[in-house]
Amino acid sequence: MAKSLGPVKRKFSPWTDPESVPFIRFENVTKRFGDFTAVKDLTLDIYEREFFSLLGPSGCGKTTLMRMLAGFEEPTEGRILLQGKDISGVPPYRRPTNMMFQSYALFPHMTVAKNIAFGLEQDNVPKAEIEARVAEMLKLVKLEQFAKRKPNQLSGGQRQRVALARSLAKRPKVLLLDEPLGALDRKLREETQFELMDIQQSLGLTFLIVTHDQEEAMTVSDRIAVMDKGEIIQVATPAEIYEAPNSRYVADFIGDINIVAGKLDSVEKVAEGDLATVVCDTGFRVVVDQPSCKATPGAAVAFAIRPEKVRIGTEPPADTSVNALSGEVWDIGYLGDFSVFIVKLADGSTFRAAQANTHRLVDRPITVDDKVWLTWPVDAGLVLTR
Question: Is residue 8 assigned to a domain?
């Protein structure tokens, strides 16, 4: 049986089917503001019923991309297709999209029910249908008992759900969410992420979310596009982005990782792929088993490995010549569910290892200044060629 990168959230992957037609397509889209290029010759496909995230640092172009889809901005070059139709020049109110803003933008003088009904009233929807739709939305976001309250009488999480209900009331084909959970505290944000996923799947809508929160994108998304300086660096599932980043930028941007520069010494073909040997600049050797190594011997590469893939112990391994490092514990971060060990190597550089705290009590905890060994199996890390 073929190995998989991480757990499979749901059996939904139209992007792997060459016959699937994208629901949304950004085709060679460029957006300039004066001399500044916010989005640069970008092509991206998003599929119907997909929960898609645009992830990147501030100023990378992700919000501009969403605003162009919503109709608040027009591309300087290229075009945007929705269900195969070019929507250039179509005003926002005529597009089958709706946008939920980080500020929620609720009307403070209106009740929850009135806020949800507002867009429907503007579209002259019959009163009976408005009442039915509002009741449906209140039930969907579990706020039936708060229908007559005003926004200032609600918690942050409740206001967020009112904004979501109002956005969904008009039954858009695409819901655009701009940093929707940024104002919530961490625990509430985590709870709301799962609620969003349940709502998206139950309604069968396409959700496009803009965020700089890596954990949020990893939790809710079917796929993620990692952006930098107006360009897409990688589009993949959360597991692929985390376990098989295509560059140092993506590897470093997502989660915590050790990255060490080196040179590729050799590549040996094996049944599962390539067995690559890297001599790192700090002097140690690593052997990496990965599906394909695109570099040739002698090329400058980087070895990358996540801290949770690194084992830490006080006893040396049987073979210390490869995939092994020794050092001294310099600092420890206790995070409750796991601990992070920062180990200082002989050359002064540091290497991180993470260990799950599976037991409340341990006989011999690793402490600061301990001499330790770091080891990892051949399939734990990867070779980055760019």
Answer: no
